């Protein structure tokens, strides 16, 4: 099972603040946008906020609409999403509304924080993650609890970490038409290392006087660790595989070459442009100059492991990739023995020093246009 899909949700002022420094929570969204947030909450399995937000805002984090709650129950889900918080210190007020409203709650904390949280008798499952809090372990634990979609509602410390660590699949940002102007107020994103290059804008929506913008990260991961952008690009490769002219004698595969800053360099699919034998990776790489300086740090996404042997042309795709300079490959599925035995493109690539990352959660999508070959 993949890690949960992580959706960051926040509202900011025109000058990029999440709140002011007054005692009351600053209302940035409009009524219709609060209703949209309610709808998003109703669609997820868990909602996470940092301990700082519990201390500052004392939120309840409920699905307010009775119809939406009824729809969740009718679909066999709990009435409310799981409520999750993160605290290093374990310094959490047991009287906060977070613990006394909605459904189940879980606190992820350190070993020391767990002692403190247990001592005050929080009405929650308290999970100690060691000396430090590791987001991957937290997400894996949520996955094991059945969480497929996680909505993160701040604050800035949490959003910053998830984005910087490449764990956020989507950012839903609402821009409110007001200024805060106080440098002591909390900002949405803090300093640090973000992905280079530009995120992908996937939607803008006017909601009364605020604007919702939805972004996806684009920069591939580095080395063997996949990030959220890797999953988006591999999903695109699987969509490209669906475009292939059908064949009884070759797989349908999609491929995308992506620069380290998240720029798409080229894409291709099997048998494209009336070439009956071209492979996806071959088609994509052929669209790039061989001396393109972005290739050595690029990642190639291929819905199927690049081939190690082929009869249609002299050079298999694993060798074409190595020849191009690309040293990172992300794929969904190893080539079965349908047409060649022991087709080990991964072995060819890794023995030459390339990194191959396999994301088996996309295997079914990659196989979908090839079902007829897999009987
Ligand atoms: N406009 C919006 O959409 C929106 C949404 C939410 C919040 N906000 C605002 O954001 C502000 C709060 O933001 P914030 O950045 O101060 O707090 P936050 O992100 O909600 O929570 C930060 C706290 O979470 C815990 N934490 C975070 N990362 C951790 C890690 N890696 N390991 C261990 N613990 C970790 C720590 O708790 P401990 O201190 O307990 O160790 C840390 O102090 C408030 O003013 C709130 O109103 C605005």
Automatic annotation (TrEMBL):
Record keywords, A-Z: NADP, Oxidoreductase
Record's catalysed reaction(s): 5-amino-6-(5-phospho-D-ribitylamino)uracil + NADP(+) = 5-amino-6-(5-phospho-D-ribosylamino)uracil + NADPH + H(+); 2,5-diamino-6-hydroxy-4-(5-phosphoribosylamino)-pyrimidine + H2O + H(+) = 5-amino-6-(5-phospho-D-ribosylamino)uracil + NH4(+)
EC numbers on record: 3.5.4.26
Pathway, per record: Cofactor biosynthesis; riboflavin biosynthesis; 5-amino-6-(D-ribitylamino)uracil from GTP: step 2/4
InterPro entries: CMP_dCMP_dom, Cytidine_deaminase-like, DHFR-like_dom_sf, RibDG_C, Riboflavin_Biosynth_HTPR
Domain of life (superkingdom): Bacteria
PROSITE patterns: CYT_DCMP_DEAMINASES_2 (PS51747)
Family as reported in the entry's similarity comment: In the N-terminal section; belongs to the cytidine and deoxycytidylate deaminase family.
Function: Converts 2,5-diamino-6-(ribosylamino)-4(3h)-pyrimidinone 5'-phosphate into 5-amino-6-(ribosylamino)-2,4(1h,3h)-pyrimidinedione 5'-phosphate.
Name of the molecule in the record: Riboflavin biosynthesis protein RibD
Organism field: Streptomyces fuscus
């Amino acid at each position: 099972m993949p890690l949960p899909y992580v959706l960051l949700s926040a509202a900011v002022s025109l000058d990029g603040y999440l709140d002011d420094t007054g005692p009351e929570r600053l209302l940035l969204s409009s009524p219709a946008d609060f209703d949209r947030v309610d709808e998003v909450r109703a669609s997820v399995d868990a909602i996470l906020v940092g301990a700082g937000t519990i201390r500052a805002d004392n939120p309840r984090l409920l699905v307010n609409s009775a119809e939406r709650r009824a729809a969740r129950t009718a679909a066999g889900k709990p009435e409310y999403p799981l409520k999750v918080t993160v605290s290093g210190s374990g310094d959490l007020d047991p009287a906060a509304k977070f613990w006394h409203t909605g459904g189940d709650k879980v606190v992820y904390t350190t070993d020391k924080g767990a002692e403190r949280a247990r001592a005050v008798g929080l009405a929650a499952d308290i999970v100690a993650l060691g000396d430090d809090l590791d987001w991957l372990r937290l997400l894996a634990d949520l996955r094991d609890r059945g969480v497929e979609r996680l909505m993160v509602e701040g604050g800035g410390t949490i959003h910053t970490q998830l984005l910087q660590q490449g764990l956020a699949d989507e950012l839903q940002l609402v821009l409110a038409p007001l200024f805060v102007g106080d440098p002591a107020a909390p900002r949405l994103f803090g300093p640090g290392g973000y992905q280079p290059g530009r995120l992908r804008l996937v939607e803008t929506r006017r909601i009364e006087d605020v604007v919702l913008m939805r972004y996806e990260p684009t920069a591939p991961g580095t080395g063997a660790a996949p990030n959220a952008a890797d999953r988006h690009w591999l999903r695109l490769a699987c969509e490209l595989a669906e475009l292939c002219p059908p064949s009884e004698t070759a797989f349908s595969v999609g491929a995308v070459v992506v620069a380290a800053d998240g720029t798409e360099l080229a894409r291709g699919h099997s048998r494209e442009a009336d070439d009956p034998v071209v492979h996806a990776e071959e088609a994509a790489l052929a669209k790039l100059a061989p001396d393109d300086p972005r290739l050595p740090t690029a990642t190639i996404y291929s819905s199927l492991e690049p081939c190690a042997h082929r009869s249609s042309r002299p050079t298999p795709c694993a060798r074409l990739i190595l020849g191009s300079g690309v040293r990172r490959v992300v794929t969904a599925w190893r080539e079965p023995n349908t047409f060649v035995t022991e087709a080990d493109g991964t072995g060819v690539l890794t023995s030459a020093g390339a990194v191959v990352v396999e994301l088996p959660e996309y295997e079914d999508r990659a196989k979908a246009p090839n079902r007829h070959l897999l009987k």
